[in-house]
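Notes from the 1:1 (GR / supervisor)

We went over the backlog. Supervisor wanted to see one worked example end to end before approving the batch request, so GR pasted a single chain during the call. The sequence is below; no edits were made to it. Supervisor asked that the structure be written out right there so they could see what the output format looks like.
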Amino acid sequence: MIQQEFLSTLKNLVPSSLVFSDILCKILDISQDSAYRRIRCEKLLTIDEIAKLCQYFHLSFDNFLHTDKSSVTFNYSSLNTQQNFKEYLSKILDMLKKMQGIPNAQIIYGADDIPIFHHFNHPEHTAFKVFYWQQSVLNLPEWQGQKFATYKIEPETIQICKEIYDLYQKTPSIEIWTDESANSTFRQIMYYWEAGLFENPDEMRIVCEQFLEILQNIEKAAEKSFKKASFELYQSEIQVGNNCVLVSFGNFQIVYLRHQTFNVMTTMNQDFCQETSAFLQNMTKKSLLISGSSEKQRRNFFQQMYHRIQKILAEIKQ
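Structure output shown during the call:
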């Protein structure tokens, strides 16, 4: 029954610390008895109730209709305003919060770039990435013609990013990197330096030093196969081609795909998710596990990036 599948999916998205019937009561403004009647499928959900639940859990009901196996429904939000960008960050934070306490929750990240979560541990580096994305990638009008400075990014945005970083550290994850994954950040920093887009040149040094520390922390986590949760890091010789993220909530999965450099499309279509899972698992089999074991390969992998940052720091001191 579609309602049973729909509500079962929603239940998988609720942390074990919360009671699903309580969530239904809150969203639908109904009693506990009415909530349980819907959970047992004794009473059908109304169209309005389905809409409220889909809006709250950020999913499309099309995924449950099974009308055409060749069709996949994606959710897409254009990041065309500063407010949309902040909402995008808030959705990432909300997803990570929901994953806490859910058994077997995990993120598998095919990383064309360094996974976004890692950039959010230091305020200046966070501010630089947020500024760059909004000005140079999303081309938001209010940022055009400006030079970067940390103070221009709202403290609330920096705080959301820090919470994202902290929760990701507590979330089991598998990351698949290539030798090119760090290149975009290197190019972004050098482009802003060469174009004179740092309002205070000393902030470039700070951003670079913090980027170095970010990479060092990732290497330490890879060495232990642990951050504040299990962590596997793979080095792939095959280019990922696009950031692809598979989020698992127990037996339920969501796929996030990058679109137009930074925008994201999301689907909960389980056939598509299972195919994506098989693709990412196949990538790990063809890649070198550099967390836990393979000390020499791991060291060489990160040393290349350290050398590049140190070269940049030497250039700006001249």
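Supervisor's comment: The radius of gyration is 21 Å.
Batch request approved.
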